[in-house]
């Protein structure tokens, strides 16, 4: 049975296998520790009965209250050997639950346009493409940068679903707020 629990500092020593996926953004140790210190309730791990890290989610709450106050998924990754077990969906559900408790209007995330498996999964979870962000992701091969979808899902606090109506459908990274 999968154990879902808060992320701990020592998990940084055990999640390399999860981060080896080419679509997973890997950050400096200080970045993970900053999230763990500031938003511990948004940082969770899925662990196998044998203690292996199966996946994790890292996020935060940000924005200006009330209309822009939202949960944000910074990273979600599941090890290739544990995919198709709904771990990502459960980790997302738990992050959304935390966002609801924080009275966030919506939850958002960025995903590579080319990562159609992830885009379809997020759509099944109720997320919509809010806008496209040009050249958001750097190319690891030195080729041209890649666009991202800014995807959102309103929470129960967004009664009129205003958070998913975009002013502009295409923006540059400089225009993000």
Automatic annotation (TrEMBL):
<feature type="domain" description="N-acetyltransferase">
    <location>
        <begin position="2"/>
        <end position="156"/>
    </location>
</feature>
<comment type="function">
    <text>Catalytic subunit of the NatB complex which catalyzes acetylation of the N-terminal methionine residues of peptides beginning with Met-Asp, Met-Glu, Met-Asn and Met-Gln. Proteins with cell cycle functions are overrepresented in the pool of NatB substrates. Required for maintaining the structure and function of actomyosin fibers and for proper cellular migration.</text>
</comment>
<comment type="similarity">
    <text>Belongs to the acetyltransferase family. ARD1 subfamily.</text>
</comment>
<dbReference type="Pfam" id="PF00583">
    <property type="entry name" value="Acetyltransf_1"/>
</dbReference>
<keyword id="KW-0012">Acyltransferase</keyword>
<dbReference type="InterPro" id="IPR051646">
    <property type="entry name" value="NatB_acetyltransferase_subunit"/>
</dbReference>
<keyword id="KW-0808">Transferase</keyword>
<comment type="subunit">
    <text>Component of the N-terminal acetyltransferase B (NatB) complex which is composed of NAA20 and NAA25.</text>
</comment>
<dbReference type="GO" id="GO:0031416">
    <property type="term" value="C:NatB complex"/>
</dbReference>
<dbReference type="GO" id="GO:0120518">
    <property type="term" value="F:protein N-terminal-methionine acetyltransferase activity"/>
</dbReference>
<dbReference type="InterPro" id="IPR000182">
    <property type="entry name" value="GNAT_dom"/>
</dbReference>
<dbReference type="InterPro" id="IPR016181">
    <property type="entry name" value="Acyl_CoA_acyltransferase"/>
</dbReference>
<protein>
    <recommendedName>
        <fullName>N-alpha-acetyltransferase 20</fullName>
        <ecNumber>2.3.1.254</ecNumber>
    </recommendedName>
</protein>
